[in-house]
Amino acid sequence: MRFIDQTEIFVKAGDGGDGMVAFRREKYVPAGGPAGGNGGRGGSVVLQASTNLQTLLDFKYKHQFIADDGKRGGPKNLTGASGQDRLIEVPCGTVIYDADSMTLLGDLTTNGQTLTVAQGGKGGLGNKHFLSNRNRAPEHALPGLPGEELRLQLELKLLAEVGIIGLPNAGKSTLISVLSAARPKIADYPFTTLVPNLGVVPRSTGDGTVFADIPGLIEGAHEGVGLGHDFLRHVERTRLLVHLVDATAENPEQDYQTIQKELSAYGQGLHKRPQLLALNKIDAMDSALLLQKQASLEQMSGSPVYLISAVAQQGLDTLLQQVWEELDHLPDEPQDSPLPILDSPILRET
Prior knowledge:
The chain is an alpha/beta fold and 350 residues long. It is 16% helix and 22% strand.
C-alpha cells in the first residue's frame, strides 16, 4: 500500500432545483390559483473520518467530488426532491484546509466524525409564493441557487501516542517490529523507512498503545532536506517521543543535537514534547565505552539515558515501563490537540 499524506481535491455541492410555474386545473374549481412547487435543495459534500482508511491514496486517482442537484418543483404545490449528499471518507487524523487561502476548515480525528465542506444550493420558490392581491395569477418562479464549490487541501497526521524518532539507521523500525506486530522494511542503509509505520504495543492492562516509527531525520529536515520534512507533521499529535541514538555512532552527542535542532526549527512545540532518550545497539559496544557515552549523553540532555538493544531485545522492558509511567502522568489529550471545526456560514459540522 502506498502512503499518501497530502492531496488536493475539488468539491462541488449540488445546485438547488428551480421553482415551478403551475396553476390548479381541477374540475369544479373555477379559480384554482397558482400551485407551482419549490425546487429541492442540492446535496451537500460531507467528509467523514473512518478507521478503515490509513492513507489518502484513494484521492490520488480521483480528485473531483460532486453532489446531486435538487429536482425541479412540481405541480399541485409539490416540492422537488432534494439532491443526495456526497459522503467522502477520509482517514482519522485528516486536517482540511481551503486550498486557495489555506484557511483551516476542520480536523477529523474520531471515527464517524463529519464535516460539511460545501453546502447544497437552496431550491427556488414556485409561483405559489408570489400570490398577492395585485397579482392573483403570478407567472414567474425563482431558479435554484448554485451549490458551493471549492478546492480542498487534505493533510493526514497520524494518530499515535508515542513517536519513535532518530537519525537513519538508529534502529527505529527494528524497535517497533520487536515491540508490536508491525513488519516494516528493514535494511542496513539510510532511508530504509520511506513511510511512517504504525504498531500497537500491548500493555499489561490488556489495552494497547499506538507507536509510530517516524522516517529518519537528517540535518536540514525542517527545510525539506531528506525525508524528514514530509513526515515531521506526524510527530505533532504524539504525546511522548522515544528518541533513539545509535550507540555505535562516532559522535552520539552530535546525533542527539541534530535531531533536537530539527524539532526546534520545525516549530509546533515539538522540541518541548516529553522525550525518553535511549542508546540502541548496546550489544555491539564495549561496556566501558558504552557507559562513557551514556554518561556524556545524560550530562548533555539533562535526562536519563536508557540502554537497549532492539535486535537482542535487551533493556526493552525497562524502557516500556518508563513509557507507560510517562503516558499515565501526561494529559489525556495530546499536546497538539485536534484542531477545531470552524463554525462559519459556509462550513459547518453536520
